[in-house]
Amino acid sequence: MKTFFQKLTDMSSVARTEQMLKEGLAELVQELGFDCYAYVNLQPIRTYAVSNYPPEWQARYLAQNYIKVDPIVSMAQARMQAFAWAAEHPCQSTDKLVRRFYREAEDFGIRSGVTIPIRTAFGHMSMLTLASHKPTLSLEKDIDQIAAITAVAQLHAKLEQQDVEPTASVHIYLKAKQALCLKWSAEGKTMKDIAALENISFATVNFHLNNARKALDVGTLPHATALATKLKLI
């Protein structure tokens, strides 16, 4: 594993394009004997993945909000260090959603793996998982925590730097009036200004902006305009 993490660090350093990064990661994962990988950036409203898992599984994972069910994610958040895992048999869990999650993951050949979580900016977390169809996983040596975290941190930085297109992401929707009022706010207009510009009442502007904040799951208008701009919603 230590050799893999060094190779991952090297590859992340030299990859100049998004295609090089994704292809290089897929090749390294297969060299190590795993089937596929999933890099997941977990944020309150902007969780996204860069992965070569089957597209159907990626779409289902986010659509069913399995990020809240997945025991590997919970384990990563609790441990915050690299670890190997093997999925429980579906009947071993008492939680109906977890049982369904395990069954569906197994249908797509995801039964064991290694996960490396790291802390990222502003209290968020990213994690890289190497997954296998094998029911159990046997590593020759314990995972080198420093090498693992260093490699995934380098990968995270490169993905952020290149603004890599996610293979799956949580979709956020704003209604037209919400986006319009947020755009005016981002342009520096007050709610009174927006009301005059759009020929609507101050209360209506406040209504649309409040609903936009709720849709984006943020507490302030500046945060809403910043996030909506970053997500290219306005």
Structural summary, described in words:
There is one protein chain. The protein is α+β, with helices and mostly antiparallel strands. It has 10 helices and 6 strands; from the N terminus they run H-H-E-E-H-H-E-H-E-E-H-E-H-H-H-H. The protein has helices at 2-14, 18-31, 55-63, 71-79, 96-107, 145-162, 176-186, 191-198, 202-216, 221-230, and strands at 36-42, 48-51, 83-86, 112-119, 125-132, 168-169. Helix 7 packs across helix 10 (221-230) and helix 8 (191-198) packs across helix 9 (202-216). It is elongated. It starts with a helix and ends with a helix.
Topology:
Layout: H1 2-14, H2 18-31, E1 36-42, E2 48-51, H3 55-63, H4 71-79, E3 83-86, H5 96-107, E4 112-119, E5 125-132, H6 145-162, E6 168-169, H7 176-186, H8 191-198, H9 202-216, H10 221-230
Antiparallel strand pairs: 1-2, 1-5, 2-6, 3-4, 4-5
Helix pairs in contact: 1-2, 1-6, 7-9, 7-10, 8-9, 9-10
